Amino acid sequence: MSLFEEIEMLRNSEIIREKVEFRLREFEELGKADTWFSEMCFCLLTANWKAKPAIKIQNELGTSGFLNLSNQKLAQFLKEKGHRFWSQRAERICKAREHINVKEKLKGKNSAEAREWLVENIKGLGYKEASHFLRNVGYSDLAILDRHILQLMREHSYISSVLQGLSKKRYLEIEKIFKEIAATLNMSAAELDLYMWYLKTSEVLK
N or C, fewer C-beta in 10 Å, the chain? Predict the structure, then answer.
């Protein structure tokens, strides 16, 4: 079965389609809210780690915890929650507090400009993490090239291999292919990501 057929099969499932549509509406609402800093910290946590426990940490800490816990207390909290890189991530979240007004700083920028700003100014956000953050706050035209998406693209021969630490050039090359798939299916990159993630994980997470 081709990737197109697999995606269409999911899209024709009312239950799965509703989950995807609910999540996309949630991203739009997050874009209107004042919780962008919390979402950015969530994406800092997910780098080379898992989304589910990062969501749990975000829910427990909230914006207040990300903003106010000392580096030491934040590191201890992340360690207790089993984060693989607890010390480094606490340090990066504390450093990111310089940009608590990230929503304002990205105002007026298109998705590509916003991503470049994040990669240049927020330590710990590469192209994947910056794309993840922007998708979660309502930008719909960027690809989040995590291992699940890359593996699926390799399985369907869109790319030849799955590499860790993609260069900017390679990231943009694969993203172009990803967007072409989305365009063929008449959906946004954000929507395609959710369906492809479901194919690999049977979940629709943020």
Answer: N
